[in-house]
Amino acid sequence: MDIKKISADILSGLFNLEGRVGKSMVIRKWVTSLFILWRSKLPLTQIEKLSKEIPFHIYLISTSELHKSNDWYGTASWLKKYAHIPQTVSLKVTIEHGFYPSNEIFHKDIKSDLPIMVTMAKKRAAYLSLKAKKKSISIGPYIHYAQDFLSPRDYQMEKERLGKNLLVFPYHSTGISKVNYDKKKLCKKIHEIGKGFDSIRICMYWKDVKHGHAEYFKKQGFECVTAGYMLDPNFLPRLKSIIKLSDFTVSQGVGTQVGYCILLHKPHYIMDDRHFYTGTDKDELKLIRKGKNCSNYKKIETAFNHIGKNISQYQYDIVNYYWGLDQIKSSIQLRKILESPR
Known about the structure:
Number of strands: 10
Distance between the termini: 44 Å
Strand content: 5-15%
Oligomer: single chain
């Protein structure tokens, strides 16, 4: 007897039943409180607990979004809060959930019947309009619209504890593929870059915490933090506070975090290390290789291939082009975009 399947069927059945009598929010609040909100009290260093997976059927009930990937990393929730749209509303737009270096589009976004696509950069919006044959709008880096996870008081206390902080983003796995790289070589580089810093933090992706990668970094004397599980609505607020607490940021490769760091005025350095992915999904592995080898990836990588104390104009322009720093909207503008299909 599959207890998880029975549980999923019962919860889904309750949700559908309550929805018909106008009480779906009661079920949603109960499920969210029981399975998700307890994480909001955990410190950023509680990586094992924060990386605990949220069952997908629980996520389906906890979000009001029709297009479920809209709320990965809490994106839709924070856009609605910023735009003063009730959380009970399901947006009639498709939101890209991250930065794509290549011209690939998430297959579920392409198949969506929703009339508008939302992305970060103007360049990407133009491409989506052409390929998806529907209106696409750029709104800049999503992390701008999220609140800080830490209160001003907690932030100040953490900053005093950390002092001058170096923040490192290693290559990370995906939900179905595992990343492999030379941790010893990486840690040697981190120690070299970290001279003169009071503390060094490693920002771990939830999947790599599950793979046990953090233990190696901890033995090297580094503090490990995480933004949490990908279906946790506080992912973006945690990431925002983690970045803001740093003084300099480093990545092993190009990812969404590069644009977020520049948005938050943190100088960034990309050190391209050898790595490879393993997994059973050949299509995803092919997509990863394609992204890594595309011209956009190489251009961003080259712009950040040196250590500098400040963000150069060229680096800012590159990020603006691919992450849409100049596309950030006011709450009124964002509301008009998100409500326009209705």
